[in-house]
Write a structure and sequence with these properties.
The complex is a heterodimer.
Chain A (H helix, E strand, L loop, with lengths): L1 H4 L18 H35 L2 H5 L15 H32 L3 H16 L2 H12 L10 E2 L2 E2 L4 H25 L3 H9 L4 H12 L1 H17 L2 H6 L13 H7 L5 H8 L8 H31 L4
Helix pairs in contact in A: 2-14, 4-7, 4-10, 4-13, 5-7, 6-7, 7-10, 8-9, 10-14, 13-14
Chain B lengths: L3 H4 L7 H38 L10 H10 L14 H32 L2 H16 L2 H20 L2 H6 L11 H25 L3 H9 L4 H12 L1 H17 L2 H6 L23 H7 L7 H34 L5
Helix pairs in contact in B: 2-14, 4-8, 4-11, 5-8, 6-8, 8-11, 9-10, 11-14, 13-14
The chains are: A mainly alpha, B mainly alpha.
């Protein structure tokens, strides 16, 4: 019996390596991943750095405060005050439409969502809007704003409605921001656990009050993030503005009512200013285009940073 | 004894139902608007499709001359001309979109894998904002950089004088090219892909990866065999989004692609990559001033209808492809 128990002592083998072996192919793959990741950073750094350099060379404070003018050289074509104001107006008007509409849409999808079929249809419609090229939205905008009932929103001359105004551009641009706002509202509302709603119902609040007083304030960071991203998209869009705002150099009001006349008139934004002043455009003043592109990029980056900060504040709020 | 609920057998509509109805009505209004867009764009496009039939998508003749003829026939005294063969524009769209999507897919997949699993924390902290930043740069800025940096570089350094001379009687090679368009479009759409891919890869349950690691498979293979395979539907969804963006890109491509209705010929060898063209969306943009001419307007709406139809099909594909993910309980 003891012979059976006494096994010949075997030298203990070296334990298998804790790390699984990496073949050459895997190493090359990882190297490629590193390389592409670094390339990504390098491209971004190159774009931002190059524009920063050009911006520092060509941006003068006077550019931001003078109207554009017709001229032969870069020296006498003025600045881009009008496009800057146009960007602000278009952004504000588009968000004034997209934000309430997007919040309503998101709240309905997340909190009501009945009948089921309609909710699915609404979801895919929002996805479809997000996938629709903005140039198609622009053409459709031209179609509806040139039609009779909406003609009063733009310039009409001799029975022809031009369909180009801040109203038209902002209305179609709001569709560009809408999907982002809807997605952020839904994300924000879904992050709030069900027991928060139940607690509110338990103290006798209606669903509508719960949404207004509890859920929307709690989801505000996400909504702000979505709104910032949407605004960035609106400000960065060119196609709709080229077609629906007319891209005239200066703001060209219609009629004499103080504010309304400007909004009914045509104008331009920073994006169309860059587009027109690129070598492929009609203006062809690369220095001005660089300066405007730099200002545009700074605005968009600022919005991006703001969106990030708002999102971080949202993470601080934790439900247990 | 009446049951309590019978006492109020006709409940008044509460504030919740009213709020639901109002919001639902708003949602329906948006749906109606989108439906109207589909209907009206198709209706406006109909004369052009009707006049050309399937030849609309075919080749034949110089597309820029056709556009010119269509525009001038909008004059009231003339009969409208509708002859339009869009193949050069479609071919350009396919080439530019296809090239950019293929390059961006491979690159983005590696970057997403790196970002989710293999990047050290400091790298992740850099890469994530970089992706978001790159996605938010307006397309006109990409276009400007393309026109002022990439295009002159290609025109002056990559294309040789003999190459320019060899095709000078057909087309002028100045750097506005397929290559420039594809390169810049790749940079534009990869951030979208990276963002979607990395969300999908992150959603893969950790335990599945650990199971594979426990069997002695190294991290790299585990991630590619388990995580990337599981996230395949997300890869398709992200690609679909990127294709939609690439198809609809008008501004940057109008600036960089050369804006000539020319179909690049693959049999030209290396010159093929330097040939100019003009995709569909850019065609609408460059001719948007000519909406006043009725036949031109119908033709532009026909192009828009093709783009819109592609967008609808793409979003449907994206939806259909996500369905299997839900079965695994992987949300993305």
């Amino acid at each position: 019996v003891s012979a059976v128990l006494e096994r010949p002592t075997v030298e203990p083998k070296a334990p298998p390596p804790l790390r699984a072996p990496w073949r050459l192919r895997d190493r090359v793959g990882l190297g490629l991943a590193w390389g592409l990741g670094l390339l990504f950073c390098a491209i971004t750094a190159a774009i931002v750095g190059y524009l920063l350099l050009q911006g520092l060379r060509y941006v003068r404070p006077s550019l931001l405060t003078t109207h554009p003018a017709a001229g032969f050289g870069e020296a006498d074509t003025g600045g881009f005050l009008d496009p800057l104001v146009g960007t602000v107006i278009v952004g504000a008007m588009a968000m004034a439409i997209a934000l309430p509409l997007g919040i309503a849409f998101g709240v309905w999808l997340s909190e009501w969502g009945r009948p089921f079929g309609l909710a699915r249809l609404a979801e895919s419609t929002v996805e479809m809007i997000a996938g629709t090229p903005s140039i198609v939205l622009a053409l459709f905008g031209a179609l509806i704003f040139q039609s009779g009932p909406l003609g009063f929103l733009s310039r009409t001359a001799g029975g022809v409605t031009f369909g180009r105004s801040f109203f038209a551009a902002a209305a179609m641009l709001s569709l560009v921001a809408l999907p982002l706002v809807v997605a952020s509202v839904r994300e924000g509302l879904q992050a709030i656990p069900g027991h928060v709603r139940e607690a509110s119902y338990a103290v006798g609040k209606t669903k509508a009050t719960t949404v207004r007083r509890i859920l929307l304030p709690a989801a505000r960071p996400q909504i702000v993030t979505g709104a910032m991203l949407g605004l960035g998209r609106v400000i960065g869009d060119t196609a709709i503005v080229v077609v629906l705002l007319g891209a005239t150099m200066r703001m060209d009001p219609v009629g004499h009512t103080p504010v309304l006349s400007s909004l009914r008139g045509t104008g331009s934004t920073l994006t169309t200013y860059v587009f027109q002043n690129a070598p492929t455009g009609e203006g062809n003043q690369p220095h001005k285009a660089y300066a405007a592109a730099f200002v545009l990029l700074m605005i968009v980056l600022g919005l991006n940073v703001a969106a990030g900060l708002a999102g971080r504040r949202g993470k601080a709020l934790r439900w247990t | 004894v009446a049951a309590p609920h019978l006492l109020h057998d006709r409940p008044r509509r509460g504030p919740d139902e009213r709020a639901g109805l109002w919001l639902g009505a708003l949602v329906c209004a948006v749906l109606a608007f989108v439906l109207a867009m589909l209907v009206f764009v198709t209706r406006e496009a109909w004369p052009s499709f009707h006049a050309n039939g399937l030849h609309w998508f075919g080749s034949g003749g110089d597309v820029d001359r056709q556009i010119q003829a269509i525009f001038t026939s909008g004059d009231l005294r003339r009969t409208p001309v509708y002859t339009f063969h869009a193949w050069p524009l479609i071919w350009s769209t396919l080439l530019i979109t296809g090239g950019a999507v293929v390059i961006a897919f491979v690159g983005s997949l590696f970057v997403a894998v790196f970002l989710v699993e293999f990047a050290p924390p400091w790298m992740r902290a850099v890469l994530q904002p970089v992706v978001r930043l790159l996605a938010s740069v307006p397309s006109v800025v990409y276009g400007l950089l393309g026109v002022l940096v990439v295009v002159p570089f290609i025109g002056n350094h990559l294309i040789s004088e003999p190459q320019k001379a060899s095709v000078a009687h057909v087309i002028s090679l100045s750097g506005y090219s397929l290559l420039a368009a594809v390169l810049i479009l790749t940079v534009m759409i990869s951030p979208i892909m990276v963002a979607v891919f990395s969300d999908g890869l992150r959603a893969v349950p950790r335990g599945w990866l650990e199971g594979s690691l426990a069997l002695g498979i190294n991290e790299w293979r585990t991630f590619w065999k388990i995580a990337v395979r599981t996230a395949r539907p997300v890869l398709v969804a992200g690609t679909v989004l990127a294709i939609a963006r690439a198809l609809g890109e008008a501004i940057m491509l109008a600036m960089v692609s050369g804006a000539v209705g020319f179909a690049p010929k693959p049999q030209d060898g290396l010159i093929f990559f330097f040939e100019p063209s003009r995709p569909l969306a850019a065609t609408i943009l460059t001719n948007a001033e000519e909406l006043t001419s009725p036949p031109m307007r119908d033709t532009l709406f026909a192009i828009a209808a093709v783009l819109l139809f592609s967008a609808v099909m793409l979003s449907f594909t994206g939806w259909a492809v996500k369905q299997p993910m839900k079965r695994y309980g992987v949300r993305a």
